[in-house]
Amino acid sequence: MAQRQPLIAGNWKMNLNHLEAIGLVQKIAFSLPEKYFAKVEVAVLPPFVDIRSIQTLVDGDKLLLKYGAQDLSPHDSGAYTGDVSGPMLAKLGCTYVTVGHSERREYHGEDDALVNKKVKAALKHGVTPIFCLGERLDVRDAGGHVEHCTTQLVEGLKGLTAEQVAGVVIAYEPVWAIGTGKVASSADAQEVCAALRAKLAELHGDEVASTVRVLYGGSVKSGNIAELIGQKDVDGALVGGASLDADEFAKLCALAAGGPLP
Ligand SMILES: O=C(CO)COP(=O)(O)O
């Protein structure tokens, strides 16, 4: 079975200008000694306007931290006012881009078909999509969460080859746990992450399923990361609020790496 390196990705959402971004990345790099990066991959996902500054800092100081974006256009270029393309992100050295975040689905009307195009656009340009999916509270209360999530998975990965699927990161983010302080229990997270992996195995075989990293996201912090990441099918976390505090984020990454705390 493939060895999956844990990934902790900080989704900054619409927070921090480029000067604040530089400050936060410097603090994270200072707080998290290099040895941790051998055990856990750490990435930050700032707003578009911060990326160039972070690239300069990461390249200049040879930081081991990766970075990426929070969205991309399904198109490569053209008359799409306000959009940012995969080639632009690739040129800036982005490793990751989140696709299909529930806030994009809710506030920008993104549906599974568009998410699927964005996953393909990211892969086409060598930027790893962190493909987000998850159920709303009413769906969970009705007991439909596993089916909802596996359906989103199938729709979002439609038309991809097994090799392409192996290059995607999945993030299970139950909508009711995002920014609410209500973290899914580790058993809840494991249930859905395992079901997603089983669906990947059904569609693309065991090797692909055992290669793909499945993250959990929703109110993750240093106090709950160890239990979440201790689950068999949870390979890391997509962290919102807690990724804006350098000490907390460094602590969280250190715990994901198995400690000790820096
Ligand atoms: O949406 C999230 C990460 O993408 C989760 O946000 P919080 O960690 O703030 O709940």
TrEMBL record:
Catalytic residues (UniProt): 101 (electrophile), 173 (proton acceptor)
Primary subcellular site in the record, as a coarse category: cytoplasm
Keyword Cytoplasm: yes
InterPro entries in UniProt: Aldolase_TIM, TIM_sf, TrioseP_Isoase_bac/euk, Triosephosphate_isomerase, Triosephosphate_isomerase_AS
Catalytic activity: D-glyceraldehyde 3-phosphate = dihydroxyacetone phosphate
Protein family according to the UniProt entry: Belongs to the triosephosphate isomerase family.
Highest taxon in the source lineage: Bacteria
Descriptive protein name: Triosephosphate isomerase
UniProt keywords, alphabetically: Cytoplasm, Gluconeogenesis, Glycolysis, Isomerase
Pathway linked to the protein: Carbohydrate biosynthesis; gluconeogenesis; Carbohydrate degradation; glycolysis; D-glyceraldehyde 3-phosphate from glycerone phosphate: step 1/1
